Each structure stands twice: as structure tokens, then as C-alpha cells.
Amino acid sequence: MDELPGALGTSASLALRLGQAVFAVASLLFMCLDIEFYSYTAFCFLVTIMGLVIPWSLTLAMVDAFSVFMKRPTHQSSLLSMIIVGDWILSFLSLAASSSTASVSDLLIASNGSFCTANICTRYQLSAAMAFLSWFLSLASSLFNLWLLPTS
Amino acid sequence: MDELPGALGTSASLALRLGQAVFAVASLLFMCLDIEFYSYTAFCFLVTIMGLVIPWSLTLAMVDAFSVFMKRPTHQSSLLSMIIVGDWILSFLSLAASSSTASVSDLLIASNGSFCTANICTRYQLSAAMAFLSWFLSLASSLFNLWLLPTS
């Protein structure tokens, strides 16, 4: 089997996983630090999903790191399908969470600062942007692994 | 090639496509009829995406109907990949639109009726629910066709 960059067990995949985790952490920090986010359902949803994405991405990053540094590729078909399904579900959830957050923060800004100060509104938007980036990387991982599935 | 229910050119696929179109139309009607939806970005986004989903689903429903009633299956690999990519993009967009709409209407309801009356808030929520159902059927179509791709 030829090695596909970005699929499970390659260094590109390791980079994608680390990117997902970093963006998810950034999104959480922008949302949680010193803000009372829990008065809005959409923001709670975002925090929950990002809290799921971080351990998932870090676990798979460890699998990739093991595979890259120990030169022992892990290509079990059953493991791969589980990872694809998980990636898939998480990518859908993080897309839903980030678009909810983006639209709610947009609405809060449109209400002319009666709900949040300009500084905090910007942080909501940044959090949504980080979640979008995390979604994008998660989708990329999922697609690369899906490509690999028929050949493994 | 064995026939997969739900893939392009089967009666199950025809049903899925018609379901998508019906739910998208229902979502549009709940959102647009007698409501000034265009003051909220999320609602405009939903209307745009549902306006894209309807012609797409109806076109593919016609392709399926042709294939079912004329007994002439259309399994060109290039056509199939175009349809999968289109389904994919539309399903992501409709998920984003429906979750945005759901979160914004939730926020409007939480503001105790200062932005919308109870009747209209319920219609926003129904519209989001219909868009979710349309997304779900669109995802199902996309997955069935994806399954078919390696065998065609």
C-alpha cells in the first residue's frame, strides 16, 4: 500500500491532529476566560464540543506520533473505520457549534452592545473562527482517512 | 454490480430526494411567509441555502425518476462523483444554516418576546427543524452514493 499523506500514521496526520487540538484550545480559551458564556445555549454547546474535540485529537495525535517515531504503521481496517466515524461525527458537531456561535455573536453585535461590550463580542467571534478552523482540519483528516479505507 | 438501495437511480433515492425537497420547501415557507426574516443574517443564510437545496434535489429526483421508470440505470463514475461532492457541500451548508437558525431563534425566545411574538418564534424553530430534516436526508443520499463510488 502506498503511503497517503494525511492518513492515519503519517506525519501530516500528526500535524492535522495537533492543529485541531490547538484551534480547539484557542476557541475554548477565547470563550471561557473571564466570560459568563453559560447564559447562551449556543456557547455552552461550543464549549462541550470543543471539550470533546481536544481529547479525541490528542489521543489520535499520540497514535500518529507512535506510528511515525516507532516506524510501526497501524493500518487495521476496523480501527480505521472507527476513527473515520468518530471524526465524522465530531466534524459535524463542531460545524454546528461554530456556526451557531457565529450567528449568535453576530446577533449580539447587531443589538448594539446591549448584551456584550465590543471587546467581549470580538472574543465570541474569534472563538467561532477558531472552531471553524478546527472543524476544517477535522474534515480534512476524515477525508484523508476515508480515502485510505478501500485500500486497507 | 448489485443494486444498493438509496444510491443514484433507485426508487429509495427518489424518495430521499423528494423528502429533501419537501422539507426544504416547508422550511422556506415557515421562514418566509409573512415574516420579515431579512433582519437576521442567520435567517437570510437559511433562505439562501434552502433555495439552493430545492432545485438541486428536484433535478436529481428527475434523474432518479428517469432511471427508475425507463429502467435505464445511470452509473457514470464522473457524474456520480460530481453528485457526491455537490451533496456534500449542500449538506454541510444546510447543517450550518439550520444550526444557526436554531440557535438564533433560541436566543430570540430567551429574550422574552421583545424581538418576536410566541407565534413567530415557534415558526422560526419549525423552520430550523425542517432544515435539519432536509440536512439529514441529504447526508443519507450522500453516504449511499459514496458507498456506491468504489464499485462503479
Write a structural description.
Chains A, B: InterPro entries: CASP_dom, CASPL-5. Chains A, B: Pfam families: CASP_dom (PF04535). Chains A, B: Keywords: Cell membrane, Membrane, Transmembrane, Transmembrane helix. Chains A, B: The chain crosses the membrane at residues 37-58, 79-97, 128-149. Two copies of one chain form a homodimer. Chain A is 76% helix and 0% strand. Chain A has 152 residues and is mostly helical. Chain A has one domain (11-151). In chain A, helix 1 packs antiparallel against helix 2 and helix 3 (77-110) packs antiparallel against helix 4. The interface between A and B is medium-sized, with 18 and 18 residues.
Topology:
The structure is a homodimer of 152-residue chains.
Chain A: H1 11-32, H2 41-69, H3 77-110, H4 118-148
Helix pairs in contact in A: 1-2, 1-4, 2-3, 3-4
* Largest β-sheet summary of chain A: none
How far is it from the N-terminal to the C-terminal residue of chain A, by CA?
Answer: 8 Å
What integer is the average pLDDT of chain A? Answer: 86
Number of β-strand runs of chain A: 0
Return Rg of chain A in Å: 17 Å
Helix count of chain A? 4
Largest interface: A-B, 18 and 18 residues
Question: Rough shape of chain A?
Answer: elongated
Structural class of the helices, strands and pairings of chain A? mainly alpha
- Which segments of chain A are poorly predicted (pLDDT under 50) over 5 or more consecutive residues? none
Order of helices and strands of chain A: HHHH
- Into which percent range does the helicity of residues of chain A fall? over 70%
